[in-house]
Amino acid sequence: VSVPSRSRYSVVIVGAGIIGLFTAYHLAGAGAGPILVVDRGFLSSGASGRNGGGVRQQWETRATVRLARESVAAYRRFGGEFGYNIWFRQSGYLFLADSDAEMARLCAVSEVVRSEGLPSRVLDPDGVHRLVDGIAPHAVIGGTYLGSDGTVYPFPAIWGLYEAVRSRGVEVVLGLEATGITTSENRVSGVGTSRGHVATSHVIDAAGGWSGEFARRAGLDVPNVATRHEILATEPMRPFVDPMVVRASDGLYFSQTMRGEIVGGLTLAHPTGTTGGMSTSPEFLPKMARTLTTLLPRLGALNVLRAWSGFYDDTPDGLPVIGEDPRCPGFVHANGFGGHGFMLAPAATRRVAAAVLGTPSDLDPGQFGPGRFLGPRPPPAAERLQLG
Amino acid sequence: MVEPPGRQFSFDGRTRSAQPGETVLDTLLPEGLPNLQRSPHYHRPRAPMCGIGHCTGCLVRVNGRPNVRACRYEPSSGDRVTTENAWPSRRFDVLAIFDGLFPSGIDTLHGFRRPAFATPLYHRVIRRLTGYGAPPSPTSANSLSFPPEIRTTDVLVIGAGRAGRAVASELVANGVAPLLLDRASRIEPVPGATLLPRTTVSFLPPPQPTKEAPFEVLAFTEPSRGVRVWARRVVVAVGSYDASLLFGSNDRPGVMTADGAFALTSTAGKPPFHTAVVFGAGERARGVVDRLGDHVAALVAPGAVPPDLVRACSEAGIPIYPRSLLVAANGRSRVRSVELRTRGSGATSRVECDAVVLAHRRVPNVPVLFQVGARMQWRSGPGAYYPEIDADGQTSVAGVWAAGSVSGVTRPASAPSGTRAARALMGTASPEPPPERVPSEGGNELEGYYRELLARPRTGRWVACACEDILLQELEAVTARGYRGVEVAKRYSGLGTGLCQGRYCLPDALLLLALREGRPPSEVGFITQRPPVVPTPLAAFAALDRPSPVREDAA
Q: Does A74 touch chain B (CB under 8 A)?
């Protein structure tokens, strides 16, 4: 059961998360030949099963706004296409500002989003209070809001994709770790796994928080850094918060799911790398609890049921890495999503598939390609809206 | 004053009185077992099941704060207590039509997708119905803000039962003053130890070896005082509890664990039922027969019944149904009878009763041990995960010991295992041989029982997870779709994500998944227990974020 059935595949995808599975789906749809997806954990054990389910289109960079807008359209179709209800609920993203500088930044983002044809609105404190009842007076000075942003329930997206790719003939082997690549004439010739070698001309690094580690095992120096982020869920109550609420100054985000749980997180400075484990820390629960109850005091009467953590795969400029590595033909990056893999997956993975198939892509390689980190000067920070 | 005044509070609009130390549920029990709750999806009537503050059968709303357990909450004067999640009342809830409308369950994974344009409407309707009840009222958190309690101790003993108290006494006798905490509102004193009653550990994180006190333990004292304990060493003595059981309508009011039967029996000896069917044939079933024998309608056992229990039953005039399947609990808002089937032969019988007492299986209360990172071991005799320990109870985590039934010793050895752990902790050897533990090998009777039971056609609702109203067929769908392992089963079905934190669904789910996947439960895996181990108010955690909370009153 847990070894690949063939010795050769057209494409081997490392990581059975939302990025790996969506890429497999597009490739299989394009008739790319035998495809193998391997993952060292169980289905949904990584960030795809550990995130807050936010899907937003408000970004600083235009190209990301476009990818997000396309992803929103894809998530609207997901239920019909994949047979699973992901409960994509377009109740908006509310960005909160607690300083003038932050408000100015949000206004600039809102301007970009509007110029891309999406009706992001700038709100005064009254507007914020009308959207979320009970926010402490004076806690915010304003915000921005886009009603077509929303949330999904991540698990059924994974089940739907898993079943769809398997019915398209993709082989998914769980509990199998990719240990590195083999090359021939300086291009990919195969992938080593914890249980043997498979031959392939293309390997896709979609390993989320472990993608940097896999690339480095393949001998490629990449700037990806795994950072641990924590999240909690309360007991489920009848919904009283509709939008996803986010605040850039401390990385706070929370929403209330269809089940009624408040699910949210906060940015803490943990040591980087994947060695810290995926449990929660004794700092997070108190910090998150105080932040939530200071903003929305009535939450103090709710019980926390669970807290956990997962890994973001961060890049220096805040943008994902999509495309073939110029140093190693056949090695394709689909990583560096920085906690936004779920939001961008449907659209971003089309470009990953294009990179494998050699078909045209509308992404600027200078902005998203792995080559951008190889020049003498690192690319400047481009997308700084790193939250929720 | 001649009589104690009692604390006047209102329950669903009527004034009641509680004596100090009495819980909301205590004041209701003299009128019989109350149906306090409606289940979250199908609005089935629910009553207290566990009596020890874990199940969702007694949730009430107190002063606008939702999901307070009536079996633990001691009301103050002027409290306003109401039942939740039912309209117009807990006795007649119109939403109970869902129970009839969805005989095979509500499929939230595949349903409500079509037509696509109706999605926002589905969302609006479902968001009015979902969850356990109304959100907290705007002012409900105001009375939950307390200054935190910060403590530093050499040894923290979690659990003040026989084992925990033995640990504490032995430590005190050797000049170490431990901190002893327990969920109970009163702890039998151990002179020399500091007691923290009504206090539950929420999070026992793995040690931070560089710190003088490596264990930063988060806890709370009810109702919501945050507690942080810095400890150099920790002894976990949190005991075990009675598991639930799968059968038709196993969530019917009146179905309770032996824990529940004992906890809900008044000090005068009146149980919360007239006559109960007791399920089980071990020491725990014997305990129910001995203490509540006058109220036992029959003893039903999955296998053979040992001679001493046969004798005890015949002396009390209690009929015995050995080698029998408990098939279903009949009734509506209360158990009226149970259906039994003799194993192998297929002969069926019905026994009239108004309760079912589950006394067939004790499982260790291990979530904190998973949390601290202790290596765990499946012991197939009892069919549960226990910590790997040495002869003294030392776990795989330096500085953490386990004692008492959570470590796998049986009741007579509880206190000795505590004494032993305390000595080991101080570097003294114990002369006695180590206590025997529950068997790590050998068959679990329930596996064969479930194989036979689940192969039969079913009637009634088989509830795999009562907290979230997850049905047995939803769990079976996981393996039917080709998914394997308990971690994926949890994420696919939602099992183990309710307010009991998986205490009542996971023990059976492991056996069931093992049967369906055709491999032993140890290979089906375990759920990585996520903190907090018991639902903990955000207010309690929030207070721990700063030395002294400052009220930020709005102008």
A: no
Distance separating alpha carbons of residues B181 and A70, to the nearest angstrom:
54
Amino acid making up residue B327: V
What's the predicted TM-score (pTM) here? 0.95
Q: B312-340 burial, b if ≥16 CB within 10 A, otherwise e?
A: bbeeeebebbbbbbbbbbbbebbbebbbb
Say whether residue B150 is in contact with chain A using an 8 A CB cutoff.
Answer: no
Min CA distance, A200 vs chain B (Å)?
27
For A165-185, write each residue's pLDDT tens digit: 999 999 999 999 999 999 999
Cis peptide before B88 (omega within 30 of 0): yes
Please state whether A349 falls in left (phi above 0), alpha (psi between -120 and 50) or beta: alpha
Dist CA A243 CA A257 (whole Å): 10
Please tell me the distance from the alpha carbon of residue A59 to that of residue A341, in angstroms, as a whole number: 14
Q: Which residues of A touch B541 (CB under 8 A)?
A: 285-286, 288-290, 304
What is the rounded CA–CA span in Å between residue B71 and residue B50? 9
Return d(Cα B301, Cα A365) in angstroms, integer: 70
Could you tell me if A240 lies within 8 Å of chain B, comparing CB atoms?
yes
The angle, 0 to 180 degrees and rounded to 10, between the axes of the packed helices A100-115 and A62-82 is: 70
Contact A286 B538 (CB under 8 A): no
Q: Which residues of A touch B229 (CB under 8 A)?
A: none
pLDDT per residue over A3-55, tens digit each? 999 999 999 999 999 999 999 999 999 999 999 999 999 999 999 999 999 99
Subunit contact B499:A305, Cβ cutoff 8 A: yes
Cα(B495)–Cα(B242) distance, integer angstroms: 19
Please give the ipTM for the structure prediction: 0.95
